[in-house]
Amino acid sequence: MVDNILEVRNLTKYFKTKKGLLHAVDNISFTLERGKTLGIVGESGCGKSTIGRSILRLIEPTSGEIIFNGEDLMKLNTLQMRSMRTKMQIIFQDPYSSLNPRRTVSQTISEAIELNHLIHDKKDIEKRVSELMDMVGLADRFANSYPHELDGGRRQRIGIARALSVNPEFIVCDEPVSALDVSIQAQILNLLKELQSKLKLSYIFITHDMSAVNYFSDDITVMYLGKMVEKSPVEDLFLQPEHPYTKALLSAVPIPEYHKEKRKRIILRGEVKSPINLPDECRFSSRCQEFCDVCKGSEPQLKEIRKDHFVACHNVT
Amino acid sequence: MDKHEFALDVSNLTVEYVTSDGIVHAVNDIDLKIPPQKSVGLVGETGAGKTSTALAIMNLIPSPPGVIRSGKIILNGYDVLHMKDSELNQVRGSEVAMIFQDPMTALNPVLNIGEQIEESILLHEDVTRDEAHEQACEMLEMVGIDRSRIYDYPHQLSGGMKQRVIIAIALCCNPHLLIADEPTTALDVTIQAQVLDLISNLRDEYRTAMLLITHDLGIVADMCDEVSVMYAGRIVEHGTVEEVFTNTKHPYTEGLFDSLPKINDRKSLLKPIIGLMPDPTELPEGCTFAPRCRYAMDKCFKRRPSLNAISDTHEVSCLAYEDPVFSIERNKHGR
Amino acid sequence: MKQKKTKRRSTFSEIWRNYRKNFSGMLGLMIIVGILVTILVGNFIYDYDTDVIGQNISERKQAPSSEHLFGTDEFGRDILTRIIWGGRYSLAIGLAAVLFSSIIGVVLGSLAGYYGGVIETIIMRLADIFQAIPAIMLGICFVTAFGQSIFMLTIAVSIGAIPAVTRVTRASVMTVKDMEYVEAARAIGANNFVIIFRHVLLNAMSPVIVQATLRIGGAIVGIAALSFIGLGITAPTPEWGAMLSSARQYLRGYDYMALYPGLAIMVTVLGFNLIGDGVRDSMDPKLKK
Ligand SMILES: Nc1ncnc2c1ncn2[C@@H]1O[C@H](COP(=O)(O)OP(=O)(O)OP(=O)(O)O)[C@@H](O)[C@H]1O
Ligand SMILES: Nc1ncnc2c1ncn2[C@@H]1O[C@H](COP(=O)(O)OP(=O)(O)OP(=O)(O)O)[C@@H](O)[C@H]1O
Ligand SMILES: [Mg+2]
Ligand SMILES: [Mg+2]
Fold first, then answer.
1. Is A111 within 8 Å of C1 when comparing Cβ atoms?
2. What is the pTM of this model?
3. How many Cα atoms within 13 Å fall on the side-chain side of residue C66?
4. Selecting from 3.40.50.1100, 3.40.50.300, 3.50.30.20, 3.40.50.1370, what CATH number does the domain A4-87+168-243 have?
5. β-bridge mates for residue B23, sequence order
6. Of B24, B46, B105, which to mutate for an interface test with C (greatest number of C Cβ within 10 Å)?
7. Is 60 exceeded by the pLDDT of residue A242?
8. ipTM above 0.90?
9. What chain A residue is nearest to B161 in terms of C-alpha separation?
10. Closest CA relative to residue B187, chosen from B204, B165, B162, B223
11. Minimal CA–CA distance to B159: which of B140, B181, B183, B187?
């Protein structure tokens, strides 16, 4: 039997806005096997971060079940949830706004240890902090630095150390490298990979960078306007994308290789729909090239078209 | 219209910012030439001095703190650095136009997009308001926005549409050179493809030369004829896209390629460049890349390399090539 | 978003470095330090009973001279002495009032900003109501209702300012609480108390501090105004507003009696406002350009 660390069932999050209900995440289900990485890709505003935050219940999902290590998180009260978060952590996208500017590196890293009373002795806490800093590749001399004295890559390492400080089993990485330079991105991606095998971590890896998700994940889900449109093991998805959006997404990725003839790209036309008060039709229909009448009729459901490969499109069978 | 050898000819450009923390050496003695109708990519990481270069070409460096220490910028025959403000304004727009990175802030929020396009047409062309309006409608259609939206305000448009409006404004006066400073960094991949596609089509149509600033080597491969790689305010390698991509010479360029996950090959490990870019207020003597370079030798820390030609079109600035048999790893594997 | 690479020093020394370059700010600081030193020195060289309130009928209403630089009042008391002595009331009550209104306003504002919902609605509607009444009216009502001690006076001067502080704090807290480090703190198990104090408030304080500095001048005017209409500090204690008030009857012919207390109020308020502007500019260097 497979050992699933996380199972999300019918997760839905609507935000109430002045104009109406905003469908940020709509009826998403997936499972994450222990020690594996699930990539979530999709464009800005499609609900990736909302999924990540809902799983840790940093925002309250509208409905759905989140089963972590066999326990339904939605049934826990605030206090139980607080202690549960020592097993699950999150790394944020923006290394500038994710660190409190008035706290030093060591204060930031040790905060979780103190708050959760993981270690009591001051000396031991210090030792643990320097161990964590070492683990993420931060030199000891930065212990008393303030975040603004450090560059983006180092700040992201602090965020990682903070997440690791409670010994989590599972980490949501919410676009951990998209604010960084390419050479620094590679450093951080390698670090996360290394930590995964060393500490047996399971990841949800949120990104909009197709090359990074390919490098990093085992399974991948593609989101569009709050819906999952395709889900499959990574190799399969890159080899044989099925959903028109996934195809366009893959074809749009610029590849850093010389090619004499310019590559033919799928260029999407039309505009992205507003996520507010969505009608019952395919959400991608406004930009889809394979658009036909059935697409207007109803919203397509996720179907398994071959083993482990799910697609939500009326035209794919 | 005169024929000039280059649409843009920059030589010995040095830009500094004088701040209370010291002098930021943002651009150090660079040369950059763009032949007419060609497109040149300028690649580099944050703080490499790409935007400063672009602003200098427009003579728009904020001063203070910015100072153009030295250099000569000839833009289609005009000596940009020695022109009166009134002449400069004429040149900006009609000879050279610039697209900025952030589409959210480049448009005026209180004017509708039609007015903004018209304004720019009226500034540079001798037409009536009605003609300008008609031209603005045509420009909008050209960038793929329905002309009925001409009275929309910027906040009513999506990011990709805003960037297309900005492109319309930039191209409405048919400039000889388009400077695009990370035109798609703020956009999603599918929208990016759309915008890049639009830029290349319009360039073909208007025969505009382009300086494309980006940190994405993939975009360079798609959009450019030549590429200059910039590091710490210097150009470390320049050549045609084919040469730089298939016969990479500079260790930094190699590092950039190795840092990128390959979309077709998920097994090979990323090889990041170790360390960080040097602080631009205190650049090391010798090669600025030496502290991060895996091939660095003693001399690299002492002597500053200059840009040397390898072929007619390919130049590299690296001391290791003084040894004729030297080759970087990337080329050894015969890729 | 791309990363910025700017080196910065610690917040406080950074602010001080900017402040030092601010000419009017430094001028304000010099004025206030000068006033404080004078008050301090005055405390030692004057005796309250003889010099400050002791009457000397033979020297009534003397115009400024080398002996009495600012002249004397209707009881023959040296006006300069009384102004120097009176400064302590203006400054002490002004500072205390601002401190008081800031504390209450910050607490209310952070509750409203952090929790939102019903709490926010109640607090903000109350603030609206109080803000609709002129501050001086509130002060008058308060003193009339609760009596005229210095403590009550302090509170009377400060209540008018509480809604404004609440508003500023709420706005600032609302921006800070959406920062990712606040979410990160929640993710590592911090409770609301830790989050509000350690992560939100400290980072939300700068606009509040700026506003507080700018309000000291207003508070001093408030005390003077209450004293002027006889609800503040009463004779014979030499409060500037009270001095102004009693000089009112002698305006014709003895205008210096009103002039100097008025000038004292003006210079002090000016000094604090210059400091306030300076603090604002040096906390947010972008504002200047
Ligand atoms: N607190 C909120 N209140 C109202 N709407 C929200 C809130 N948070 C997110 N949204 C909306 O929910 C949708 C999904 O947002 P989310 O942040 O999850 O997107 P994302 O996929 O993470 O995007 P990005 O790539 O830009 O980070 C967006 O339309 C967003 O505007
Ligand atoms: N107005 C300014 N004042 C002081 N320093 C500046 C200013 N503008 C830029 N710099 C500095 O000059 C250097 C080069 O900046 P520039 O904006 O040209 O880099 P860039 O290559 O465009 O980077 P990015 O990819 O982040 O846009 C940086 O170190 C930057 O901090
Ligand atoms: Mg997000
Ligand atoms: Mg730039």
1. no
2. 0.84
3. 0
4. 3.40.50.300
5. B18
6. B46
7. yes
8. no
9. A271
10. B162
11. B187
